[in-house]
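Notebook entry, structure prediction.
Reason for the run: the old model in the group folder had no record of what sequence produced it. Starting over properly, with the input documented here first.
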Amino acid sequence: MTVSRRSFLATVGAGSAGILALPLIEWRGYEALHAQGTASRRADRLLAAQPGMTRIDSNENPNGPGEHVFAAIRNHLGESNRYPVRSEDDLIKVIADKHGVKPENVILGCGSGELLRSAVHGFTAKDRGLLVPEPTFEAPANFATFLGVPVVGKKVDASLHADLDALIDAARDSRPGLVYLCNPNNPTATVHGHADVVSFIDRVNSRSPQSTILVDEAYHEYVDDTSYATVIPVAIANPRVVVTRTFSKVFGMAGLRVGYAIGQPETLAKMSPWLLGSNVSQLSLIAAAATVNDAKHIELEQKRNRETRALTVRFFREAGYKVPDVQANFMMVDIHRDVKAFKAECIKHKVAIGRQFTALPTHARVSIGTSAEMKKALAVFKTTLA
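New structure, fully documented this time:
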């Protein structure tokens, strides 16, 4: 059962003194979460949103979702006054059909971010922490820290891949409630092949049977490595596995906020209570349903990204910088200097790159923009790095 505004208020009415004392409701608790990166990230995005800025900082699709999605939204503007009902079921069915699963194997989120939070809520506790590579997408660890859940991080290896062996050993020692594996990994853009991920899941299950493994496949469509494949079939077969996806990347809908998780119904039921009712807007549901099976659009975006990514990789390598195998719509490059200072200099030239990651302070994360945007950015990099 999801948490709606009405059910939340009813709960408060039944026992307001106790509920209002919870850390999640206290303003002090909000400030704690804000201090863990939300404020600085918003400041970064405000800088990136300045007029004339080339925005290659947030791994977004620079081309957007395509005219067919805008047309679908326009055709359904008249439904904006209604809460979504059938549209949720319609999108879930389209997603289920696409992946060959049942509707009960799918839940929706406001982007994948809401789903990651719900997983931290549903699978961790103060004695069952969160295990992550370092660096990786920080949202799960930030939220776990906010809840008082212990976080164990294991640094990526020399090739910037998640160190699966180190994570397995840590799972044996710490017995986490949730293991988070972003594949391809954000921010390093490296990927593990299907056989390695399946083996990783099996070994974590063996060493820590109570741990749930969440595989975040946000950048799935950008992968060219032929050893890679989704682990959605594993999630359908294994109650200790969940896969999340998003419409924010190849589908170009970051601003519309739609994501989904796939797993066994009993597994998803541990996440669902922490999701808001009507968590995806009516028009976002319509837009997602219009694009999820648009193979032509996906192929075009893959081609654009592949070509512009190759141009960017070539620039850095010819300039003498090491670039790992890149399998996403961004890359991470060791520029041998403090990234904060480099980022600030790029901003002066109207180019916004990614934030600094603590585990790799000299590595710059550069998202892939349009061909024109990248040519402008590379000219700035050439001058700034020189």
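Summary: The first strand starts at residue 54 and ends at 55.
The old model has been moved to the deprecated folder.
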